[in-house]
Amino acid sequence: MKINTKRLNPEVKGDITLAADILNKGGIVALPTETVYGLAASAFNSEAVKKVFIAKGRPQDNPLIVHISDTKMLSMVTKDVPEVAFDLAKEFWPGPLTMVLPKSDKICQEVSCGLDTVGIRCPDNACAKAVIESGGLPLAAPSANASGSPSPTSADHVLNDLDGKIDAVFMGDTCEVGVESTVITLCTTPPCVLRPGAVTLEQLREFLPDIVVDKAVLEGAKKGEKVASPGMKYRHYAPKAKLVLVEGDSAAFCEYANKNATAAVCFSEDKEQLTVKSVVYGSNKKQETLAHSLFSVLRELDEMGIESAVVHAPTKDGVGLAVYNRLIRACEYNVVSLGENQ
Ligand code: TXA
Ligand code: MG
Fold first, then answer.
1. In what order do the strands lie in the sheet with 29-31?
2. Tens-digit pLDDT string for the chain (342 aa)
3. CA of 254 to the centre of ligand 2 (A)
4. Whose CA is nearest to atom 20 of ligand 1?
């Protein structure tokens, strides 16, 4: 059934209280965060959370992240929180870090998909924060895209995927970071990065010197294999265009693209050497620019009617690890290596 999706203004106070009211009554609302847009429901309301899974077409065993507006709300949603979680919260919240912690019984089963843990984050976005505060409720919110497609970094992306399927959407700005939060679990020894993001491994090591990176981050999970973070096993972030990820320096990438491809998703540094149609997704010298534009460029490829393209892979350090992780999924693990990138 198609519903009338209300367009809300993040600057209007009445729209914030309206969204909080919809959420308190069991509705679902898309809102901006600094990473990507989220599709929110009350984390305490099973029926509302079920609606999120249906609107997205999300597999039933992929748990949702719960959003809070303040570290003080941690006790509503978790229990037995290790001391280091408070240190990490102090350093990185509000911001793009999700911590998997033992879950409180109040969090409904639909959020955690039967796990006894829950991923928690405090978003750095005035609208998201105001809606959580106004409703007084933690919000379960996955990315507000149709499951499998690139995550939404603008309200238009949300509407492309979910118009008519959700109660409301905030018509906010483009998301600053552009890739989803770093997910770490503090429920294993050693702690582990389940999904890389803008809070980097290098930054986390200062607090968690023994932290490891789950092997699914760079390899992807095999069919049927049990994974620490269920989201890792699904086809993800993929536009309709068939993509091949190419590792190598600028000269090697451009030579390969000019010989073998009809289109290229490239760094600004590559552009001049390319004779095929090209779309720049940022600068190799500023990995944040690659993260910021990645998902909108993947969506653009489809709008441009591009059927296949090669993509220049970033290095796997800093925020580059997050971009690389999303790209191997978008490329369905088709990777060509032409040597070291730099
Ligand atoms: O930046 C973000 O994190 C965005 C915004 C909206 O906050 N949200 C987001 O949610 O990316 P979603 O549902 O698209 O991704 C959540 C990821 C999935 O890979 C899921 O498997 C993992 O977090 N996850 C959630 N709860 C978990 C848990 N208890 N244990 C392990 N992994 C968990
Ligand atoms: Mg997602």
1. 6-8, 168-170, 29-31, 38-42, 139-140, 65-67, 117-121, 97-102, 182-185, 192-195, 212-213
2. 789 999 999 999 999 999 999 999 999 999 999 999 999 999 999 999 999 999 999 988 899 999 999 999 999 999 999 999 999 999 999 999 999 999 999 999 999 999 999 999 999 999 999 999 999 999 999 999 999 899 999 999 999 999 999 999 999 999 999 999 999 999 999 999 999 999 999 999 999 999 999 999 998 655 555 566 665 555 678 888 999 999 999 999 999 999 999 999 999 999 999 999 999 999 999 999 999 999 999 999 999 999 999 999 999 999 999 999 999 999 988 999 998 765
3. 31
4. 231
H/E run at residue 38? strand 38-42
Q: Is the pTM for the entire model greater than 0.85?
A: yes
Among candidates 219, 26, 39, 240, which has minimal Cα distance to 128?
Answer: 39
Among protein residues, the one with the nearest Cα to ligand 1's atom 13 is 142
Q: Which of 68, 170, 183, 185 to mutate to test the pocket of ligand 1 (most atoms within 8 A of CB)?
A: 183
> Ligand 1 pocket check: which of 115, 229, 292 to mutate, most ligand atoms within 8 Å of Cβ?
229
Ligand 1 atom 15 nearest Cα: 142
Q: Which two tokens stand for residue 88?
A: 């990490």
CA of 260 relative to ligand 2 center, distance in Å: 31
